[in-house]
Task: inverse folding
């Protein structure tokens, strides 16, 4: 089998279909490791990884940390709240200082779109994008598709719907790229103010109405309304949003097909998804979290292979 | 150059002998587990398992993948491709017989030790190999059950084939 075609994971766009399949196959094996009584493998014991989180995160950070620890890597953590950034240091300087401590890989979350691409052009270490502003979140897209793959044999003839704030969502963009590369059809649904202008060029179908969207799809990925990224009012009120686009038991009962529900978290119960639906058998939200560790282990493992001895 | 060093008839005789040797040491088989090292040890493991079944022995079987436990990650140019891990039993307090086709440097077996310890602490670990390449060891590891011993040069390779159409051992250089 061939190595990954990329040296860094900054965007899904750079990956080929066979790269994604290689990551999935490797993650399958790591998932088995995660079910052993001792869940640790020694593969990355000579690698040091810095987790640089310039933006808040719980799930992604914990998931990356756990994946790194399961692979026996040494890790250092950094969060912007108590850092020299407040003293005026640039991103590149911060990272160069950290690299001077002999770090091999960097997991970066930053609020500026393209931050990880910028770093990958300027420094030598392997970089994994853990979310850059409203641009991309490649590992989330990989784990979403990986979770879909566990429920369906093939991505061809599969319709996947993404509901909510598409314009601000890095998860949406990465998911669209990833699913299309794998051969699935992608549709989006939400208020037209939350749809990017580039929707046509992304080659996705737009649904104004939640019910018709849900009856079209096999899988629905429900996104959180990211109020922290919205400095304008995009819709009148949360209540109105949830009455039109919130996924509830009532809407699901009205459609004929059975839809698998996903959510990248954190969930706002009662806003984009109702509590009973989030906890129902249709939802694979917690599977996604479990798969997240395996996918991140696979990405770290495959990129670490490319570090020169 | 490819040379056949064992044919099907001899291989079957050796398999019978190995099965009997296992039976001798594992007469009480409640706690015995045959563990084939992926990918090349599992076919041999399956044959031994079938033989032992015929001899009314209730040994258990599993497949162990050692890819993530190897010590040459990043040192070899090729990507190490993991195989299936199939081990649904705890190895705690079991008598484990590790099975592989060829014993060469001993590094695969070392990785296998580390991998199988993730499934519990066995009471005892033994090693069975079909071909023992003598004088090639890089680690102090020896097999308890040996099919055949061969003396080889370092650049030579030994292939064990257990397929339906071709059951033989080849030496290539």
Result:
């Amino acid at each position: 089998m061939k190595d990954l075609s990329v040296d860094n994971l900054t965007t899904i766009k750079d990956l080929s279909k066979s790269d994604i399949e290689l990551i999935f196959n490797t993650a399958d094996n790591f998932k088995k490791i995660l079910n052993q009584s001792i869940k640790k493998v020694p593969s990355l014991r000579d690698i040091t990884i810095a987790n640089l989180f310039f933006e808040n995160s719980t799930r992604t950070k914990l998931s990356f940390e756990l994946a790194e620890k399961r692979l026996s890597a040494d890790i250092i953590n950094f969060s912007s709240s108590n850092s020299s950034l407040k003293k005026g240091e640039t991103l590149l300087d911060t990272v160069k200082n950290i690299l001077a401590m002999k770090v091999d890989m960097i997991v970066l979350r930053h609020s500026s779109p393209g931050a990880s691409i910028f770093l990958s052009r300027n420094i030598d270490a392997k970089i994994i994008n853990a979310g850059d502003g409203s641009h991309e979140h490649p590992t989330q897209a990989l784990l979403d598709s990986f979770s879909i793959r566990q429920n369906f044999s093939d991505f061809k003839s599969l319709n996947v719907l993404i509901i909510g704030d598409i314009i601000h969502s890095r998860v949406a963009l990465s998911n669209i790229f990833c699913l299309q590369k794998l051969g699935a059809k992608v549709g989006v649904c939400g208020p037209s103010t939350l749809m990017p202008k580039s929707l046509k060029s992304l080659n996705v179908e737009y649904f104004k109405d939640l019910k018709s969207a849900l009856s079209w799809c096999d899988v629905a990925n429900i996104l959180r309304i990211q109020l922290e990224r919205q400095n304008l009012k995009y819709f009148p009120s949360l209540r109105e949003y949830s009455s039109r686009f919130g996924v509830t038991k009532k809407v699901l009962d009205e459609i004929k097909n059975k839809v698998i529900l996903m959510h990248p978290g954190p969930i706002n119960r009662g806003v984009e998804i109702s509590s009973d639906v989030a906890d129902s058998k249709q939802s694979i939200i917690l599977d996604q979290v479990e798969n997240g560790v395996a996918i991140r282990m696979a990405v770290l493992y495959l990129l670490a292979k490319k570090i020169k001895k | 150059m490819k040379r056949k060093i064992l044919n099907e008839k001899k291989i079957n005789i050796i398999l019978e002998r190995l099965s009997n040797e296992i039976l001798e040491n594992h007469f009480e088989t409640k706690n015995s587990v045959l563990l084939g090292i992926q990918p090349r040890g599992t076919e041999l493991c399956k044959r031994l398992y079938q033989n032992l079944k015929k001899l009314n022995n209730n040994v258990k079987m599993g497949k162990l993948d050692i890819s993530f436990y190897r010590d040459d990650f990043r040192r070899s140019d090729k990507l190490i491709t993991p195989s299936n891990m199939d081990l649904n039993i705890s190895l705690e307090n079991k008598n484990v017989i590790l099975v592989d086709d060829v014993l060469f440097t001993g590094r695969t077996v070392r990785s296998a030790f580390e991998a199988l310890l993730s499934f519990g602490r066995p009471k005892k670990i033994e090693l069975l190999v079909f071909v023992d390449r003598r004088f090639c060891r890089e680690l102090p590891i020896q097999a308890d059950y040996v099919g055949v011993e061969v003396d080889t040069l370092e650049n030579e390779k030994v292939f064990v084939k257990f397929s339906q159409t071709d059951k033989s051992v080849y030496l290539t250089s």
User: Anything to note?
Assistant: Strands of chain B lie at 2-6, 32-37, 60-64, 95-103, 124-134, 145-151, 157-162, 167-172. The two ends of chain B are 5 Å apart (CA to CA). The mean pLDDT of chain B is 90. Chain B has three helices and eight strands.
